[in-house]
Amino acid sequence: MTPDRAGATRALAVLADAWFDRPASRIARLVVHCPIRIPIPEPWPPDSDHAFLRPLRRSFEEGNPAIGTLHFVSFGSTRHHPNLALMTLLEGPGELWQPASDRYLQRRLIVFPGWGDGITRVQTKAGRPGSKTDHITFQEKSPGRVSGHLTPLSDQPEEKPYKASPVFLSQGRALHLCSFQIRQPKDADAAGLVWCRLATPSALPTAAIEQALHTGIEHDRHGLILPSPLPEWDSSHHLVVNVLLGLDPLEDKDYPVNPGRIAPTFRRSLKNAGKEGDILTRFVGIPLDSGRRAIVALSVRSGVPPNAWTLAMSNRGRK
Question: Which of 27, 229, 263, 318 is least enclosed by beta carbons within 10 angstroms?
Fold first, then answer.
């Protein structure tokens, strides 16, 4: 998240803060603030499904203070919307995998999109209606073989893994993990000061949670991606968010990308979509513990998707 060679800034590395308290024996309050602003804004009503809170709530309610390292990814404000919380990228806790020169990840990488309580309903590979999806987990059981699976909101079975697909761009190689279409800014979570109530086991020490929040969240590797001046994300446009792993050192900048190379099925169900060639796509790298970078690639495109959020795993389109 640095200026490109021309000196243009397309994203900012921002700080985050988090705190936890127990007003009652089994009822707790969890607060996250990202990006940090002074003075602190008035908080929104509690939102337990917020992208910045879901991974923490799931872990703490299960009695597990080991949360790993979280990277909050936000989209900067415009005259049409405030700062938006696009997703949380979570580097899972636990032992590091055996290092290798062709390994992309050191541990699990989990994507919690900012679709709030309107969690996307995803079809299975066989085309049957699937369960509501909470997050997507990527792992590398053997070096060079990254795959991801959808984790449902409830206790329903997980899908079989999707293999991550290489993307050969003129600017360099990348591994495509997943993509999202977001219809309108109101369909995404707002960033800023967010909080929720949660029930935690009384045996879970407050000190352990505070230490996990300090280690996993209070760092400067959260990303605030600044919008491009044109086109604007208005009622006739939507936002496409691609999540990739960089194989080559791609510079943070706007690259012309053929939309057919990444999640080509997105255009099939659009209404009022104009003709598009290569689309300027903002590439921003989020540093991971492995030394690789998770790349968030954003573009505003013409047309209106039928759903608030649409998910595509690798080169497979799913609604």
Answer: 229
Buried b (16+ CB within 10 A) or exposed e, 237-259: bbbbbbbbbbbeebebbbbebeb
Whole-structure pTM value: 0.90
- Contact predicate 36/72, CB 8 Å: no
- Cα dihedral sign for 209, 212, 218, 222? negative
Pick the most confident of 87-91, 160-164, 230-234, 271-275.
Answer: 87-91
> What gap in Å lies between CA 204 and CA 2, rounded to an integer?
39
**Cα–Cα distance for residue pair 221/157, rounded to 1 Å:** 33
Which distant-in-sequence residues (6+ apart) come within 8 Å of 94 by Cβ? 66, 68, 107, 108
Is residue 89 within a helix (H) or strand (E), and if so which, with residue range? strand 84-91
Other C-beta atoms lying within 10 Å of the C-beta of residue 297: 25
Mind listing the pLDDT tens digit for each residue in 210-254? 999 999 999 989 999 999 887 899 999 999 999 998 877 778 889
Half-sphere exposure of 160 (CA within 13 A, CB side): 3
